[in-house]
Amino acid sequence: MQRTVSFRLNGKPTSVATDDDRMLLWVLRSDLGLTGTKFGCGEGLCGACTVVVEDRAVRSCATPLKDIAGKQVMTIEGLGGEHLHAIQQAFLDHHAFQCGFCTPGMILNAYALLRRTPHPTREQIVAAMDDNLCRCGAQVRIVTAIQTASNGKAGA
Amino acid sequence: MGATSWTRREFAQITGSGLFVYFHATLARAQEPAQLPTRMAAPSDFNAFLRIGADGRVQCMAGKVELGQGVMTSLSQVLAEDLDVALESIDVVLGDTDLCPYDMGTFGSMTTPLLVPVVRRAAAEARAVLLAMAAERLDVPAERLRVKAGVVSDSTAAARQITYGELVAGKRIERHLANISVKAVEQFQVIGQSPRRKDAIDKVTGKAQYAGDRLPAGLLHARIVRPPAHGAKRQSVDLAAAKAMPGVRIIQDGDLIAVLHERPDLAAEALAKIQCTYDTPALQPDEKSIYEHLLKTAPAPRMIGQKGDLAEGAKLAAEMVEQTYFHGYGAHSPIETHTATAVLENGKMTVWASAQAPFSMKDAVARATGLAPANVRVIARYVGGGFGGKSDAQQAVEAARLAQLSGRPVQVMWTRQEEFFFDNFRPAAVIQIRSGMTADGKLTMWDARLTGSGDREGVPCYAIPHQRTVSAGGWQGGNPPAMHPFGVGAWRAPSVVSNTFGRESHIDAMAAKCGIDPVEFRLRNLSDARLRRTLEAAAKAFGWQSAKAPTRRGVGVACGTYANACNATMVEVAVGRDGRVQVKRVTIALDVGVVLNPDGLRQQTEGAIMMGLGYALSEEVRFQGGKVLTRNFDDYALARFSSLPRMDVVLVENPTTAALGAGEPPIIAMGAALANAIFDATGKRLLELPMTAEKVKAALA
């Protein structure tokens, strides 16, 4: 349905007038120009498009715009401010990426995990991250980075 | 000819080789890149690779592409080392055909062995020229000068100093010196360290711009009509419903039919409304019948290695082993699909593209658009993974043609299904080996026929007196059209993953047959000292216990060489009754010569382990003839977090071999090591990759 959908995006009130059945990914990337959120598979299978809605990681390629009306949405552009967020810092320190294409989705998925479970076990990290794919094979470092972030100040 | 257009050589002829420096007179000219060669030779002018700004920042230009392998960082390191500047002062410009010197492409683990020495020599020469300039400016003999972080100072009076930035003053250096040597290994301060990656901040903040993140004003997103199968011919097309959608533009030009829309998802919606009928060829073979098909359709085999006399080798053998190994097609599956954003402005086409070979892409775009190559610029700044799959130009040609036809900037971003459909898969392969050995496990003969895999590392790395290897077809093109139902090409360590799987499975089978521990068996037959040492290093780190297989412990070994690098891989697995293979740990020992960046090498090796688990155990391309049935990640299983084994990476120190590429060598032995571990665990040898749970279960039954 064509209408104006309002939500908070990275803390700021945002409105988009469009078909509310459109997927959030394309509204973010194309209508709003926030390209940190990536397209990888289009079917919620890889996690490259992960964003945080009300502290939960969602697949923006499979989330219609109408589902986020009135909600808080955070993309990679909204994480950290002047300084890197603890998770970003840990990804940086451990070089928990290679090509970097899956990285925004990984970081936001980890963010949502730590909001829910501030001190996850390794098994909890693996389970929570398992549906985010990284073809370069940075998984071992991503697990370490999340452990590091959870041991310091995380989820802020 | 005005003074400003003199070439360096012409100027040198005029001025002789006097010790003074000439700068181009105009600033505009001074900021231009050095003349770029259009052919394959690396430019001899160091200005092609580096430029020093008035502020002292150093720009490093190279035609390579950052695919994730860390080239921005490793090139910065070598430049910092030999130019004596701070790593932080370097800005790296990669993959831009207007700004960077020609490069064939980022593949084959060639950056380190081939480009790094060139950049190092360029840096060393520039440093020497700068020192000579400083000696004149400071009026101090050059021997008394020292350089640290781009500051030249008098070693007897440190206050007498001048920076590179001040010396060059934003101009281009026109003086050159010959035969300047690079630093020796023992002088290294930056090479061999593991500094923060240059791309780190961009990547953890989401600021890294990939080809699809370019959104020029007026951009239209294209979705293209695709056939259901390779070889299918379109019979009819009905565009009416798509045309009725608001904001849709349809472009039809020969075979190309595309829907353009301001929003990518709405372009996709319109595309779905287009109805086509096709005449589709017979859908044969499939992933099961492919091997028989390959043996029938392959070209005549070529001899790639021969020594001694096979009949003699067979006579000397107490035991013969004959076996055939199979390797299915493999997809590259980078998470970033092929993408290009093309802008045609004032007769110049600029294409931001996910590309491993921007210069050949530039030529392809020029050919397709009729533009002069000089009017085409390709920029591959950040690329979301390549693995050999982004060396073609199809998506860039599509975007450029559509930009030309529509008069608007156009972005093409393939869907995951298009990515699987147009991927140049690693070719399926059949490796047939017949070999002989003495009773105490010395190889006497080896007769191998490689079909489909390609030649690289096809000749065994073992010392075998009587041997012959022939090869038919490969990944580099030149296959008969009927051989593969779709495109094939280079996949990380092309040829080598398949050939190593066949050879190392076979070696393992021989070791088992004569009852010798598989590591011991290999050592008895290896004469390559570096590979022996690498294998011993792996065995030590892994804690390999000598025993005849199968031991039921589930351990496996494989080794090999690629591009002069040595790899020994050991794994431990548990095999479930359901055929699921759980990989508990992987140890990889590597000798890649001098290590430029140990953490970078570790990253590549960890990544190779994960990708290795995929090609060995789960990644299976399914198809019926030219119809690719694998369409998304739910039917192409990459290794994921829950697949993570314990990983041990052993870097075998070797300061006497020049630095070798390391993106590919770590992956070569995973397939065979896992097959051998499954044999050790179960007594059953799997002969085909991938060893999916279904196939393992069937083998156990």
Any overview of this molecule?
The complex is a heterodimer of chains A (156) and B (701). Chain A is α+β, with helices and mostly antiparallel strands and 156 residues long. Chain A contains five helices and five strands, in the order ββαβββαααα. With 701 residues, chain B is an alpha+beta fold. Chain B is built from 19 helices and 27 strands. Chain B has a seven-stranded mixed β-sheet, sandwiched between helices. A six-stranded mixed β-sheet of chain B has the order 12-20-19-18-13-27, with helices on both faces. The longest helix of chain B has 28 residues. Chain B is globular, with a radius of gyration of 28 Å. Chain B starts with 7 loop residues before the first helix and ends with a helix. The interface between A and B is large, with 57 and 60 residues.
Outline the biggest β-sheet of chain B: 7 strands, mixed
On the 0-100 scale, what is the average pLDDT of chain B? 93
Spans of at least 5 consecutive residues with low confidence of chain B: 1-39
Q: In percent, how much strand structure appears in the residues of chain B?
A: 15-25%
Taken as a percent bin, the fraction of beta residues of chain A is 15-25%
* Count of discrete alpha- or pi-helical segments spanning 4 or more residues of chain B: 19
Distance between the termini of chain A: 36 Å
